[in-house]
Amino acid sequence: MVLDRTDASGLSSAVVGRADELMTLNAYAEAACDGRSGLVILSGPAGIGKTSLLRAFLDGGPGRSMTVLHGTCAETAAGAGYGGVRALFGPLGLCAEDAGDSPLLRGTARRALPALTAGPAAEPPPDAASVYAVLHGLYWLAANLMTDGPLALVLDDAHWCDERSLRWLDFLLRRADGLPLLVVLAHRAETRPVALAALEDITAQCRPALLHLTPLTPADVGQIVREVFPAPAHASFTARATAVTGGNPRLLTRLLHALRAEGVPPDERGAHRVADVGGQVIAGSLRGLLARQPGWVGDVAGAIAVLGETSPERIAALTAVPAQRVAEAVTVLRRADVVAPDRLDLAHDAVRAAVLGSLGDRAAADLRVRAALLLSDLGRPAEEVADQLLLVPDLGQPWMTAVLRDAAARAQARGAPDAAVRYLRRLLRSEPDSLPVRIQLARSLAETDPVETLALLRQALVPSAGLRTRAVVAVQYAMVCLTGPEAPSAVRILTAIVDELAAKEEPGTGDRELRTLVESALLIAGSARKETIAAARDRAAQLPVPPGDTPAQCQLLAMMTVLTAIEGHSVQRTVDLARRALRFPGVAPGGWSQLGSAFALNLADEPEEALAALDRLLRYGRENAADRTHVLALSHRALVLHGLGALPDALSAARSAVDAIDQGKWRGYQVVPQIALATVLTDRGEPERAERLLGDLEGRNLDGFAIDYPWYLMARARARRALGDSATALGLLRDCGRSLDDAGITNAAFVPWWAEAACLLAELNRHDEARECAAHGTALARRWGTPRALGLAAVARGVSTIGRAGLGPLTEAAETLADSPARGEQARAEYLLGRALLAAGEQLGARVRLRTAAGLAQRCGALPLGRAARRALLTAGGRMREITGSPVDLLTGRERKIAALAAAGVSNRTVAESLFITVRTVEMHLTGVYRKLGVSQRTDLAAILHAAGIRTEHPAEAAEPRVARATPGRTEQDGVHGERAR
């Protein structure tokens, strides 16, 4: 521990009993100064010496050579959005009203302002709330600080830190490889953190050094005793002091202060007094101190306990104590170690609890109410006022609930829904019958907690609510429970509300838009399950096609598009409807216009437009903290990229989606992320992992879902086939066909189980059954008419035809798929054609096809197919380098070029200029390269590229001195589809 320099006790500043921990902190600081970022998490009970250790670390050693931002989280702001961030950056003046003028907030860092300045002037309007933008801005603020040297972010009392601040630290650390950064978090072990999940995520993901401070040993205690008492201490005195305080440095220090003040010597006689004095130290020292002081000293202590770190002016205003006496009281309290030595706040939360306890519950509550009024009169943000009211047991005055409503709205607008939820929960306890509060809380939870959201919405669906209110609630209910067992009930509720709206006489424009919204939600919910999809299809057929001038109309158009697409009759009508649905700018909550249109466009062989729609949805999800929407967009993006044969990018998107649901509460309500990841893993040669992932979905009752269940069956069948279990795979494929029939889905391009089954049956020499599958698929494909569908049908006919007669359909398949966007399917068609040519004795033709197949498969990242094609090529007398599965094989052409230049030492700006692209694009590609190659910095690139035979030389004039600059982390979108292998 660090002992205060020259105080009344005579304690020195030596570090006692913490040499190992201090050495670890110094080692991590030295590593950060060398460009190796790190995280240290310091924990221990109250009074164990965490803050003192941090002070010793920052006052000496390598900590002195770093820019240090040292903040302390306060209980009064526990859970408030970005409170921890403001504690860190406040000393730089970045939390003031004029913070926007700071040069540190230049460029992208300016996006951090909503987190730094909680005032109304800094808040964006609700439709511009951008959690991701704020996180990115804070990242660049830290990066700007690191351009001047190593940076240490030290956050004390992190158990009071809000979730958003911890999520930003996680965001920063995940992108900090190669940066001169050290993050130190200190938290009290016995206190449950406000944002436990976020703190656990950082601990699990960022591999920190975990330093748990243990009690001082008797030898350590003896050393401190010798510092306090000039006379030698008896062993019994030291032993008793150790036992009474449990080796807790703070208790020990206070005990020794008290003993010396009473004139107790450190001998055997004094040892008998240790227990008596020690029992009174914590409770009695404060009480005795205040009893010996004028009443206004206690008033000042109470004000500081309630306000947290504050100013003398606010203390004076709250207590009505003159400013001069406030200063005198602070001096008295600081000398008694009640007030911290370096800030106007109580020294520790244990002291705060003792002060508040001395007031009594009623007096403490009254003081918090007065503090809230004072902060409101001072024009402080509603969130700061509300933080006081959260700790008041009775919100009996109307202005209190109004403040909480305002704080919730502002928190939501600032991209801090967790803080909004905190205020709304308290408001709901005060107004349990308030439908608006219940609905607002459900809206704040909708993207993160489906179970509680549904419970709240069920309670809001009461007959006493007006029709418009019930309609809005029903739509929200349906959107949350789509993938849960409650979906059929949503259909019934929406149907009843549509009928009520239809019966309404002389509806206005708002009523018509609301009915359109409800109709679209009914189609979405009805399309989710087999038992309701037929009725949804019939309902859509009876509705007039809307022009697409409003968000509700676009959502209705998108669902009409989906239902049209899965029928598999008209590609042109599907594309026209989808494009009209995407015509309206912006994204409505839920993003179903983009999701539905992207789904249909992908089936229609228009993947570029599908990806563009999903990219819009990804941006919306990031900017509005819409976790569920973001996950759905990533999952569908992964499936589109898989269909294109862009397996590395598909893998990255799918992994990001699965990681996101693992961190939230949507895991039991999401299946598409796992299906997408399993699908990609199988083609990447990891069917065992795919099988395990899909196994986690068992017991979800998926067989009732119209679209998700066929996806699941197809993914599982392909994994089983890759594992050599042909019988199970065939059974799953037939189940897939039956499920599609039950749902009335007849689009050849959606889950073409028949093509997979025909190939499998042909391998088993069951050609008659294979031809039945081929005939079924060919009829569907000719009706739909896209190159992908027609090519797959030709594959099925080719493999099911024995002998040379199969060469014609397989040739047709290869040529047709070459005109489609499906590079992976083209590679498989070329492989099957090459094998058939080889079996027919045409070795030359076989070599051409097999070489094409191997090259396509390798560029797609489909390693098992590429290796199979190479083996067949060698059998045909050809030659080809071993397909090793090197991660370099996963790089696109542009990524290889950028990686080679970067490995040679060329700066990002020079790379951008030489390739005629932006620096941001270079940074994004490099982040993708690092992820695909499994490295953390460009210095690791050269060895991997050299091993793969890629040269890294460059013209000497291309090199320039490298500027120390932070590189932003890659977004969850992961990958640039424009660089797909073709």
Automatic annotation (TrEMBL):
Region described as Disordered: spans on this chain: 954-982
InterPro entries reported in the protein's UniProt record: AAA_16, P-loop_NTPase, Sig_transdc_resp-reg_C-effctor, TPR-like_helical_dom_sf, Tscrpt_reg_LuxR_C, WH-like_DNA-bd_sf
GO biological process: regulation of DNA-templated transcription
Cellular component, GO, one term: cytoplasm
Domain of life: Bacteria
Location of the HTH luxR-type domain: 884-949
Pfam assignment, any one: AAA_16
Keywords from the named record: ATP-binding, Nucleotide-binding
Coiled-coil stretches: none
SMART domains attached to this UniProt entry: HTH_LUXR
Biased composition (Basic and acidic residues): 954-963, 971-982
GO molecular-function terms, A-Z: adenylate cyclase activity; ATP binding; DNA binding
PANTHER family, per the entry: TESTICULAR SOLUBLE ADENYLYL CYCLASE, TRANSCRIPTIONAL ACTIVATOR DOMAIN
Name of the protein described by the UniProt record: Helix-turn-helix transcriptional regulator
